[in-house]
TrEMBL record:
The protein, known as: Sulfite oxidase
Moybdenum cofactor oxidoreductase dimerisation domain span: 240-368
Ranges where the Oxidoreductase molybdopterin-binding domain occurs: 33-215
Enzyme Commission number(s) of this protein: 1.8.3.1
Pathway: Energy metabolism; sulfur metabolism; Sulfur metabolism
Molecular function terms, GO-annotated: molybdenum ion binding; sulfite oxidase activity
CDD domains noted in UniProt: eukary_SO_Moco (cd02111)
Cofactors required: Mo-molybdopterin
Keywords (A to Z) from UniProt: Metal-binding, Molybdenum, Oxidoreductase
Pfam families: Mo-co_dimer, Oxidored_molyb
Organism of provenance: Helianthus annuus
């Protein structure tokens, strides 16, 4: 589904999104903040690591490729996923995403923890001797919000140096070289965190004592209460959003559906941030009065258990449930993660002026057309 061209943003149709556990690259949502950069001289391309460290260093692609390669299956989700539905309650600002501004891919690359070791930062480091506590990623991408400067974002050093956090400098997506839309030649992948922190088209990495001062960290992607508007907002009162909350959506049906009475198969996705698996997905065919548990799955033929080592902790689950619909009704989905976090019922309770993190119950309507025979 094409959304806008400048900058280019797009999401797939609902049913295409959940047609497979690993999202084909052509169905993976595309999010840009400026013109898509062209990096055509791969031999000269490099990423510098500098800042509050003892051994600043420049890395060429051959240096990154020489490090151990890891494949991490992780779902990336735009913080504005499902913004359009939130805007129906009260208008918000931002890209008008439906429910498909996310995707699940197998990312291949070097672990950031391994790369940082090469500049003298040991694994599991919280602070460098010079006082560095954050890792800032700077993109080749240029955007108007930075007054023509580069897009940038940051994560805590403790997360970057933890190999179990699986933060990657990725050069592959689904077994193939990254394409331009998704960050060629090198991008950051921060699993379990809103997509805005997984910087594409990586140019440099800075180790700093403070969080990134860029626009998209300080003046965007923060969660405010419904009482805050553009006249009284104070960006400094909220921390930058990192983990995304538990989320689910129905993808086998549109917002309004017309069909015959009888059995309907309800399919969709559920995902939670921070590596928290999905414990349950509930489906209601009466607007939330009664519920039925859906089946959950990831890889075909392998039973999904939320916190099992065979499950992909950074990835979504797909769900499915057969329901019986005899009259006009509202079908609802809500998910629960392993920490017992559950989606809020009403979008009004989590409305915010930027329209991020709409994780309210997902609702679709079915209108039954009875046969005249």
């Amino acid at each position: 589904m094409f959304i806008n061209s400048a900058p280019f943003n797009a999401e797939p149709p609902r049913q295409a999104l959940v047609s497979s556990y690993v999202t084909p690259t052509e169905f993976f949502y595309k999010r840009s903040h400026g013109p898509i950069p062209v990096v055509d001289d791969i031999e000269r391309y490099s990423v510098s690591i500098k800042g509050l460290i003892e051994k600043p260093k420049e890395f060429f692609m051959k240096d990154i490729l020489s490090l151990p390669k890891y494949n991490v299956t992780a779902t990336l989700q735009c913080a504005g996923n499902r913004r359009t539905a939130m805007s129906k309650t009260r208008t918000v600002r931002g890209v008008g995403w439906d429910v498909c501004a996310l995707g699940n891919a197998i990312w291949g690359g070097a672990k950031l923890a391994d790369v940082l070791e090469l500049v003298g930062i040991p694994k599991y480091t919280n602070t460098t001797p010079a006082g560095g506590k954050f890792v800032e990623f700077v993109s080749v991408d240029r955007c108007k919000e930075e007054n023509g400067g580069p897009y940038k974002a940051s994560i805590p050093l403790s997360q970057a140096t933890n190999p179990e956090a699986d933060v990657l400098l990725a050069y592959e997506m689904n077994g193939e070289t990254l394409n331009r839309d998704h960050g060629y030649p090198l991008r950051v992948v921060v699993p379990g965190v809103i997509g805005a922190r997984s910087v594409k088209w990586l140019d440099s990495i800075n180790i700093d004592s403070q969080d990134c001062k860029g626009f998209f960290v300080q003046k965007d992607y923060k969660m405010f209460p419904p009482t805050v508007n553009w006249d009284n907002i104070d960006w400094s009162t909220r921390r930058p959003q990192m983990d995304f909350p538990v989320q689910s959506a129905i993808c086998s049906l549109e917002d309004v559906n017309v069909g015959r009475h009888g059995k309907i198969t309800v399919k969709g996705y559920a995902v939670s941030g921070g590596g928290r698996g999905i414990e349950r997905v509930d489906i209601s065919t009466d607007g939330g009065k009664t519920w039925k548990e859906a089946s959950r799955y990831q890889k075909p033929g392998i039973q999904y258990v939320a916190d099992d080592e065979k499950s992909d902790k950074w990835a979504w689950v797909l769900f499915e449930a057969d329901v019986d619909v005899q009259s006009n009704t509202e079908i609802v989905a809500k998910a629960v993660d392993i920490a017992a976090n559950v989606q809020p019922e009403k979008v009004e309770d989590i409305w915010n002026l930027r329209g991020i993190l709409n994780t309210s119950w997902h609702r679709v309507h079915v209108q039954v057309r009875h046969s005249s025979m």
